[in-house]
Automatic annotation (TrEMBL):
Residues of the ABC transporter domain: 7-233
Higher taxonomy: Bacteria, Pseudomonadati, Thermodesulfobacteriota, Desulfuromonadia, Desulfuromonadales
Pfam families noted in UniProt: ABC_tran
SUPFAM superfamilies the UniProt entry points to: P-loop containing nucleoside triphosphate hydrolases
Protein name per the record: ABC-2 type transport system ATP-binding protein
Length: 286
């Protein structure tokens, strides 16, 4: 029997006035997937999350979450979704213990243990008020509240904002463990590409056009390649982006080496690049 996708977006269009963000977007996120929604600032990642949560009605098209239209989610379905907002910082006046007690009655599957597991990884006291915690520690408490919900869909919108490398690593490891062997789905946005590379299986890259690139992380990394050539290189179909670096030019393309050399009639040198460079090669730096 076919399983219901966790998220299904069909022919989605969205505009703010004359500014079009999405056109004809189709997207499916299957249960158990860690899905990275990637794109530079202001391309529309939060817009899509707001549509999925039912906070925003799309201009056209359908968005289904656990098989229900996102703008009419039933209460039991809503309880299956845990959302981390960009920069969530309410309830600062409560202590760590108080905020756990405050949140727990709202969630039928609340797992106090998961909250305190994450707290135990930090050097803080349970009687400390949130407004006495460092920024990273407070973010960790908020993530603890999210994990304790034991939701089936976790939406983490820029979870890494303000976290130092140590806390980010801790979180990535914790998240991997948390979902291992479950059918939990994670939809994540972040500007820290190295974190995403370790976590994410499927990606959608939103750029300033209304086209959205979708594939597995491994296909993108294998198929979207970087080559260097001497001197300048004119714009040619099949070269996604050119980047002049002194005497050489970096070319980013989905073509393999032989195809690109035939096209430009020059020798190239393949270059191993990080996921971040590849991503920037796709969306551009500015
Ligand atoms: N209510 C609104 N009215 C008009 N324009 C809006 C509205 N909300 C968002 N926008 C614009 O739509 C675009 C997409 O915004 P969105 O917040 O979805 O981007 P984002 O990809 O999440 O960005 P970031 O990475 O900076 O969080 C931006 O240019 C933003 O200014």
């Amino acid at each position: 029997m076919a399983t219901t996708p966790t998220v299904e977006v069909i022919d989605l269009h969205h505009s703010y006035g004359s500014k079009q963000i999405y056109a004809k977007l189709d997207l499916t996120i299957e249960p158990g997937t860690v899905f990275g929604l990637l794109g530079k600032n202001g391309v529309g990642k939060s817009t899509l999350i707001n549509i999925l949560m039912g906070y925003l009605q799309p201009t056209r098209g359908q968005c289904m979450v656990f098989g229900e239209p996102s703008h009419q989610l039933s209460a039991p379905t809503r309880q299956r979704i845990a959302l981390l907002y960009e920069g969530f910082t309410s309830y600062d006046y409560m202590t760590i213990e108080q905020i756990e007690r405050f949140f727990s009655p709202f969630y039928p599957r609340w797992e106090k243990r998961l909250f305190y597991e994450l707290i135990a990884l930090m050097d803080v006291q349970q009687q400390q008020k949130l407004n006495t915690l460092s920024f990273g520690q407070k973010s960790q408490v908020i993530l603890g509240l999210l994990f304790a919900q034991d939701a089936d869909l976790l939406i983490l919108d820029d979870y890494s904002m303000g976290l130092d490398a140590g806390y980010r690593y801790l979180l990535v490891d914790y998240l991997k463990n948390y979902i291992q062997g479950t059918q939990k789905t994670v939809l994540i946005t972040s500007h820290i590409m190295s974190d995403l590379e370790k976590l994410v299986k499927e990606i959608a890259i939103v750029d300033r056009s209304t086209d959205v690139y979708r594939d597995s992380m491994s296909n993108f990394c294998q198929q979207f390649r970087c080559y260097e050539v001497d001197g300048e290189q004119a714009k040619i179909e099949g070269i996604h982006r050119r980047e002049k670096r002194g005497e050489i030019t970096r070319l980013y393309s989905f073509l393999d080496q032989q195809a690109i050399e035939t096209k430009i009639n020059k020798k190239t040198t393949p270059v191993e690049v990080s996921f971040e460079e590849r991503f920037l090669g796709f969306v551009g730096k500015y």
